[in-house]
């Protein structure tokens, strides 16, 4: 009896082994298919990311070529909010800010009579920054040897705010969009926030400062002389003299831009500083940081 069952048992064992082999091969095949699918997904994601990066680069070049070279003011196209542009399988959007309308921290380095230190202090106090933090920031900037590098407190790590305590951090968030640092160029009075203008012109009465601010919004100036001549006629010699002492103009060449490209499921962001006075190409981009 046992001899007759042996072949059957052998056939059963062989069948089980064959089924195990088939199952193993199937598992390997499934694993390979999953791996291939994942590899294809990675390749697709990489290709999409590279395409989105190209769109970002194209956006930067478009801005570089389209930003104004002469008088700069907030009534121009660059300053207007607009919806993102539709591109192949996605969108490309950006927001531009004129950096030269901000308070230039470089003025704190060679500050005869502490004129600009006093102006920065007024601006910081208006934002709610403590006196100790303000003094620390002024001392840190004034103590740097040589020209300051391009500093954007709203794009770079908060080097200027390294010593701030928790009570000053909220005030710093208010202050930092109003300040930057660059070398050799005036501040643009046409795009200057009212708070910065007030800090720079404390000896001019508040109602006259309001008139100056409104004047450059309604009729942007090309050169400071245009504003000084208007001030002589409308505000008097004293106000005009105060304006003449400041490094102001109506042009800008440093712009900060935040760009976002959305392509399929990929979103890339980049923050750049464009120098419209630099040669074409990469040299026109003074700073480039990936976005979150």
Describe, in short, the structure shown.
The protein is α/β, with parallel strands linked by helices and 292 residues long. It has helices at residues 2-66, 115-127, 131-142, 166-175, 194-200, 206-218, 224-234, 237-244, and strands spanning 85-87, 90-98, 103-104, 179-180, 187-188, 248-249, 254-263, 266-275, 285-290.
Description:
With 292 residues, the chain is α/β, with parallel strands linked by helices. The protein is built from eight helices and nine strands. Strand 1 and strand 2 form a beta hairpin. The longest helix is centred in the first third of the chain and has 65 residues. It is elongated. The chain starts with a helix and ends with a strand. 32% of the residues are buried.
Which residues sit in consecutive blocks of at least 5 with pLDDT less than 50?
none
What is the domain tally?
Answer: 2
The helix/strand class is alpha/beta
Sheet of most strands: 5 strands, antiparallel
**Rounded Rg:** 31 Å
Tell me the strand percentage band: 15-25%
Fraction of residues in helix: 40-55%
Provide the residue-averaged pLDDT: 86
Shape designation: elongated
Strand order of the largest sheet: 1-2-7-8-9
Treating each run of at least 4 consecutive H or I residues as one helix, how many helices? 8
Query: Distance between termini?
Result: 77 Å
The total beta strand count reads: 9
The secondary-structure element order is: HEEEHHHEEHHHHEEEE
């Amino acid at each position: 009896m046992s001899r007759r069952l042996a072949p059957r048992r052998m056939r059963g064992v062989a069948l089980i082994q064959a089924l195990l082999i088939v199952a193993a091969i199937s598992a390997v095949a499934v694993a390979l298919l999953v791996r291939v699918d994942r590899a294809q997904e990675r390749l697709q994601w990489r290709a999409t990311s590279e395409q989105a990066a190209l769109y970002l680069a194209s956006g930067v070049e478009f801005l570089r070529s389209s930003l104004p070279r002469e008088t700069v003011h907030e009534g121009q196209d660059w300053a207007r909010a607009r919806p993102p542009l539709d591109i192949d399988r996605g969108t490309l959007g950006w927001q531009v800010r004129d950096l030269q309308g901000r308070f230039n921290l470089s003025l704190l380095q060679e500050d005869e009579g502490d004129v600009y230190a006093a102006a920065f202090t007024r601006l910081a106090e208006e934002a709610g920054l403590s006196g100790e933090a303000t003094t620390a920031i002024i001392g840190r900037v004034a103590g740097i040897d040589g020209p300051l590098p391009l500093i954007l407190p709203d794009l770079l790590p908060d080097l200027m705010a390294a010593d701030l305590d928790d009570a000053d951090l909220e005030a710093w968030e208010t202050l930092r969009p109003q300040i930057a640092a660059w070398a050799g160029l005036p501040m643009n009075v046409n795009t200057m926030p009212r708070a910065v203008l007030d800090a720079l012109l404390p000896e001019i009465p508040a109602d006259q400062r309001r008139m100056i601010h409104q004047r450059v919004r309604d009729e942007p100036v090309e050169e400071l002389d245009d504003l000084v001549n208007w001030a002589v006629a409308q505000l008097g010699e004293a106000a005009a003299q105060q304006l003449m002492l400041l490094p102001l103009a109506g042009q800008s060449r440093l712009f900060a831009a935040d760009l976002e490209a959305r392509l399929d499921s990929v979103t890339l962001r980049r923050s750049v500083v464009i120098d419209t006075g630099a040669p074409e190409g990469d040299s026109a981009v003074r700073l480039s940081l990936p976005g979150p």
